[in-house]
From TrEMBL:
Superkingdom of the organism of origin: Bacteria
The name this protein goes by in its record: Protein SirB1 N-terminal domain-containing protein
Pfam family, one: Transglut_core2
Family listed: Belongs to the UPF0162 family.
InterPro entries: SirB1_N (IPR032698)
Residue ranges annotated for the Protein SirB1 N-terminal domain, each copy included: 70-198
Naturally occurring in which organism (per UniProt): Streptomyces alboniger
Length: 282
């Protein structure tokens, strides 16, 4: 019991820091990702978070000093992280929760495209590169330089530099359409964090026995300054599925109150679900 109480207290502190960082003027992408890791991994403590930040600093220190324009930066990053350090992804990484946790990606040098891109962005940013994330449909990559001189690299493929045709093929494979200019704009750090949490929820959804992962991922999503109201509905449903009928019913009723003015039919249906959840106690 004492161990569980300590873990609960630590989780509360991580969440407080997560909410505080997410609402700061310039949210730290690496720290937010590491706080997600602390929620997932009870073994990740303050020292572990510091060690991950130090590793990002160390990698940045291995880059040549300001190698040149966007293409030179992208090539230097590919040589360091892709070739020398072996950061890349494989299809099997989609089956592992660790692939969405920054501290594990730094340790294993494997991960999902978006987490490998976070490593690239954080290392390149520390070295002074003009770097940002690019959220192509279904596949996250990294961009260097201004739009009229943009260079894209795919960290999941070891940092392969992408031609315009490469980007078209990536997008066509998932969206069934060509690349739109809006797809190539820098991704906001908080949107990146939300996408990571969405990936974690999708991983958990395919594994009903890991519903506790879906729950904390939802809880963290709700701490972000902007989030879809529907997440509250999903959380309420998850509580009911986990056997917390009273808690789920209460949250269903709160959600119904929020949407009743704009979607009265939906609100009525959700209130019926709340009553059904309460009846399961009888």
């Amino acid at each position: 019991m004492r161990h569980e109480a300590r873990m609960h207290a630590e989780s509360g502190e991580w969440r407080r820091r997560f909410a505080e960082e997410a609402r700061s003027e310039r949210p730290g992408l690496a720290l937010l990702c590491l706080l997600i890791g602390a929620e997932a991994d009870p073994g990740l403590d303050e020292a572990g978070i510091d060690a991950a930040e130090i590793e990002l600093d160390r990698l940045a220190g291995l880059l040549p000093f300001r190698p040149g324009g966007p293409r030179a930066w992208a090539q230097a990053m590919a040589e360091l992280l892709g070739e020398s350090c072996g950061f890349e992804g494989t299809p099997g990484d989609y089956q592992r929760l660790e692939s969405s946790l920054l501290h594990e990606v730094l340790r294993r040098r494997r991960g999902l495209p978006i987490l490998l891109s976070v490593v690239w962005m954080e290392v390149a940013r520390r070295a002074g590169a003009p770097v940002y994330g690019v959220a192509l449909p279904g596949h996250f990559v990294v961009g260097f330089g201004p739009r009229d001189d943009q260079v894209l690299a795919d960290p999941f493929d070891g940092g392969r530099l992408l031609t315009g045709q490469d980007a078209e093929l990536l997008v066509a494979g998932t969206a069934g359409a060509g690349v739109q200019p809006s797809m190539l704009t820098p991704a906001d750090p908080l949107n990146i964090v939300q996408r990571i949490l969405n990936n974690i929820r999708a991983w958990a959804a395919a594994r009903p026995e890991r519903s506790e992962v879906a729950l904390w991922a939802l809880d963290l999503s709700l701490l972000l300054p902007a989030h879809p109201a529907r997440l509250r509905y999903e959380r309420a449903q998850l509580l009911v599925q986990r056997g917390d009928f009273l808690g789920g019913a209460a949250e269903l009723e709160e959600y119904a109150d929020v949407v009743t003015a704009v979607e009265p039919t939906t609100a009525d249906r959700v209130r019926q679900q709340a009553r059904a959840a309460r009846s399961m106690l009888n």
